[in-house]
Amino acid sequence: MNFSNIYTALCSLMILGAVSASAQKLPENYKLVWSDEFNVDGKPDSTKWKFEHGFVRNEELQWYQQDNAWCEKGLLIIEGRKENKPNPRFKAGSNDWRSKPETIQYTSSSINTSGKHSWQYGRFEMRGKIDIGEGLWPAWWTLGVQGEWPSNGEIDIMEYYRGKLLANIAMGTDQRYKAKWYTTIKPVSELGGKEWAKQFHVWRMDWNEKEIALYVDGILLNKVKMDKLHNRDDKGINPFKQPHYMLLNLAMGGENGGDPSNTAFPNRFEVDYVRVYQ
After folding, report:
1. Candidate list 60, 79, 125, 159, residue with the active-site label
2. pLDDT confidence tier of residue 22, bands split at 50, 70 and 90
3. Which of 30, 94, 159, 184 is deepest in the core (most CB within 10 A)?
4. Confidence (pLDDT) at 175
5. Is residue 195 annotated as part of the catalytic site, yes or no?
6. What are the sequence ranges of the domains in the chain?
7. 125 flagged as catalytic
8. What does the pLDDT look like over 137-178, one tens digit per residue?
9. What CATH number labels 29-277?
10. How many CA atoms lie within 13 A of 23 on its CB side?
């Protein structure tokens, strides 16, 4: 008896069963409308993604650049590095957090589908593996195509920092740049801690005319009815009744990420696939 062949056959059956089960869970009449499997080595597909550059948001420590993201062996790699290089935006005496530091200490990448692909409603899935080192802030999220943040709407399908996963939905208020948040927090320690983080996991959003629901590995993290998601201002627009584009990034430090100074670098946010069903 060839136990190797039996083992291989069993593994194949398990994989087929998992794929079948996943397909059966799709809402009725849904089909795959967009995906990136990251199967072509090299830079991310420029017909699907574009890069952000420099210091971008949240007073984060990393400088976003193209060099830190590439596809390899069927995975998108977003690599955080500790580097020391001149800040091109440096201005002596500046109080702007982007131009105040003379040097860049960390680099990473952030890619998004803005201006290339956007979607209103559907099932969104991402299979990925995150590093849970101190000060790291990986995320997979969406923003509405129209309006100023946060009145354009934000959905954080996967966000991690300071030992916890977050599933967030944000909209505008009557104060500029101040958001109303619906947030659920799940400590990674409850999922298995460092051992859990060594594995790939599936994050999912189900978004339709009635609600937005966010999951990890089939575990419901957050669900909010659409009638609660209007902006809290005199217009009262619901920013989730418009197309959103998606972002993938690995941030560090900043307003929420924590202190990465004792974390080993380089480290990675790895993505197996991103898929959208409608």
Report:
1. 159
2. very low
3. 159
4. 97
5. no
6. 29-277
7. no
8. 999 999 999 999 999 999 999 999 999 999 999 999 999 999
9. 2.60.120.200
10. 8
